[in-house]
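Fold it.
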Amino acid sequence: MGRLKRWLITGVSGGLGLAIAQAALDRGDMVFGTVRSVAARNRFEELAPGRSVAAILDLSDASVEIREVVESAATALGNIDVLVNNAGYCLLGALEEISEAEVAHIMTVNFRAPLEIIRAALPYLRDTCGRIINISSMAALQGTTGLGLYCASKAALTSATETLDAELRPFGIRATSVEATALRTGFAGSGLTSAAGRLPQYSEMRAQRETAFSLSNNNQPNDPAEIAQHVLEHADSTNPPVHVALGIDAAVKAAAICQARTEEYISQQ
């Protein structure tokens, strides 16, 4: 494993972000996490006093605040070895229903803010030949009805990760996109936001999607703690993958999606 690491992780109030942070803390690492409330900050800092530090950060806010938080993380930790862009949310709604403001918000939180955090962290990651781990989703590989903007935001993050890995390898920095399947987190509950606009043409689709989310909430097949251990392994690897599919049958599902697209391309020749 080598020396202990210094982590900057966004969204450590719960879910996968907290699971990754806890796994890192359990082995003695230091973690600087971002949260959205004073109460969440206090809870996180109580996990391992002196090694778990948190700051309040609204990812939809100005980039100036993002850069200040990243600088605070580097100061508190002594530098940054691993950056995990985990924070994000899901927006439910047909593409026709979603307002311009809603489009801007989810793309900022799920894509533009992670990119800005990466830019701010790169001077520190160059010093440490660090790792960037972007928590994407299997949704990045295939559009899904009612989740078009979420899929698009994750696809953008995954695509940017590929480019980052190619651009940053000369500096010893590696980037990995984690394309995870359903986790037992708040994704289908508190992490789910619905578009304000509701067109009657999509009422049946919306009802089906809402029912599916309700039934899956807290019943997803994958344990965040197990996924977190895999994330640590990739952070420690000297040759991490650019893409990793995590979760039960994740690799099989990803392969099937890619195969179907390949067959579609070939059929047009």
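The longest helix spans residues 100-128.
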